[in-house]
Amino acid sequence: MIPPEIARHAQELLDFIDASPSPWHAVATMEQRLREKGFAHLEESQAWSLRPEGRYYIVRGGSSLIAFILGSKPLTEGGFRIVGAHTDSPGLRLKPKAPHRTETMMRLAVEVYGGPILATFSDRDLSLAGRICVRNDSSLDSFLIRFEQPLLRLANLAIHMNRSVNEDGLKFNKQNELPLLLSDLCDGESPEQKFLGLVAEEAKCNASDILSWDLNVYDTQKGSFWGPELEFIADSQLDNLSSCYAALVALLETEAPESTCVGAFFDHEEIGSESNRGAMGSFISDVLERLAYATDVNTPGYKQALSRSFMISADAAHAYHPNFPNAYEPLHRIAVNQGPAIKVNASQRYATDSMTEAKFIELCRQADVPYQKYSHRGDLACGSTIGPMTAARLGIPTVDVGCPLWAMHSIRESAGVLDQAHLLKVLKTFFVAPAGQTV
User: Fold this and answer.
1) 208: Cα separation from own chain's centroid
2) CATH number, domain containing residue 388
3) What is the CATH number of the domain that holds 98?
4) Cis peptide before 162 (omega within 30 of 0)
5) I need a surface site. Which of 12, 121, 181, 304 has the fewest CB within 10 A?
6) CA-based angle 367:433:319, to the nearest 5?
7) Average pLDDT of every residue of the chain
8) Distance separating alpha carbons of residues 396 and 29, to the nearest angstrom
9) In what order do the strands lie in the sheet containing 105-113?
10) In this predicted structure, which of 62-71, 182-191, 360-369 has the lowest mean pLDDT?
11) What CA–CA distance (Å, rounded) separates 66 from 152?
12) What tens digit of pLDDT does each residue of 124-150 get?
């Protein structure tokens, strides 16, 4: 059986994911946990005054967050210990003019975000979550919104009209066949007014004050354990909220580190990270530079600190699936519940090199955690992570790692309970390691 402490951590991960149906909710959930542990909120638009060994966080765009603990060693000696992950997951987003009439039905037009497995969204209990922007007297406000009840459906076509679906696979035309069923419409009823009325009722505001939205389609089914010993978990957004949660908890449980410890959580990884709050943007470098200057470290000293730094890019890895053996590199089949995987790619789709790989192996040895090594099949295109782009932007040695995952980019992914505890343990070891240590 799974040890109770490990099962508890996995349940808390599922609770974190279920409370975070959009990147904006994920950041709000992390903010709450950070404040409870004494982290102070810094505004980018304000001057920073940092106390020695203080704990702080910064939010950009509502969906990216960087938190840090100042180390007891001078920054030029201790450098940064960074764990990076991403808050977004592939799926469906509402278009600006989403509600429309088709015959007697009201549908919502959606746009594909990232690379989801679209077939997995069919016949699920879907709803909406995200943020809306409203007019408030002379100002503009944004706040979170979430419909708890199943609101939408991507209903399948009966097999009687799609006889070859089991041979050819379930496919949806992204323009014509993805709009989501919402409700019946009476003659003369305006789809836009009806939808705005629903949003206004949920948000407790006037429909006429709603100006815009970022609304995410999410699955209302909560995360669960499965398997004869409940050794597996299933939920949406395991890629990559499982890594976010491990990094967050590791940071929250770190006390008096010698090096300055950083948790960096970025939006927009699934669409390339090229935004003001993505990993390819300036967020991470802006925060680290301002941190340095606020602790009386000048530009040469900041560069010195970067040279003494190390980053772990944590993102899910592809677990071996015995039903599809030909999809995997034969010598790099990583197993669920056998420890985090070190991800290696010669074309730098992952940031790992032999030295950063060796350093992570040493961390696993210190934490008494098993590890695996993953390399993608040579004749398949390899995905990427925030690792290479943050390594290039900061000049910091970086290793890409992640927990093995089945059905990545499905609306219902699966992973191992033990792996979540393994990743947390090694990240905690990373944060508290002495500043002069190899890592």
Assistant:
1) 33
2) 3.40.630.10
3) 2.30.250.10
4) no
5) 12
6) 40
7) 96
8) 29
9) 139-146, 126-136, 210-219, 91-102, 105-113, 180-184
10) 182-191
11) 34
12) 999 999 999 999 888 899 999 999 999
Rounded-to-integer distance, Cα 27 and Cα 31, Å: 6
Helix or strand or coil: residue 281? Answer: coil
CB neighbours of residue 36 within 10 Å: 9
Per-residue pLDDT at 437 exceeds 80: no
Average of per-residue pLDDT across 409-429: 98
- Distance between CA atoms of residues 404 and 420, nearest Å: 10
CA 38 to chain centre: 23
Cα–Cα distance between 330 and 342 in angstroms, integer? 16
Q: Which residue's entry shows tokens 């995200």? A: 130
pLDDT digits (tens, 9 = 90+) for 342-365: 999 999 999 999 999 999 999 999
% of the chain at pLDDT higher than 90: 96
**Domain end residue (candidates: 188, 219, 250):** 219
SS3 of residue 65 by DSSP:
strand
Q: Tell whether the torsion through CA atoms of 27, 31, 33 and 34 is positive or negative.
A: positive
Task: Quickly count: other Cβ atoms within 10 Å of residue 329's Cβ.
Answer: 16
Q: Is the domain of 208 the same as that of 260?
A: no
Last residue in a domain, options 189, 219, 249? 219
Alpha carbons 269 and 279: distance in angstroms, whole number? 7
Q: 10 Å Cβ neighbour count for 115?
A: 13
Residue 57 phi/psi, 5° resolution?
-150, 155
Residue 439's pLDDT band (cuts 50, 70, 90): low
Residue 404 identity (one-letter amino acid):
P
Per-residue pLDDT tens over the stretch 74-122? 999 999 999 999 999 999 999 999 999 999 999 999 999 999 999 999 9
Does residue 26 register a pLDDT over 90? yes
Going from the C-alpha of 395 to that of each of 154, 241, 285, the distances in angstroms are 45, 26, 11
Instruction: Give yes or no: residues 327 and 404 share one domain.
Output: yes
**Residue span of the structural domain in which 283 resides:** 4-89+236-432
Q: Are residues 289 and 426 in the same domain?
A: yes
Contacts of 258 (CB under 8 A, 6+ apart): 71, 72, 73, 78, 434, 435
Residues 101 and 138 occupy one common structural domain: yes
Q: Is residue 32 part of a domain?
A: yes
What is the count of structural domains for the chain? 2
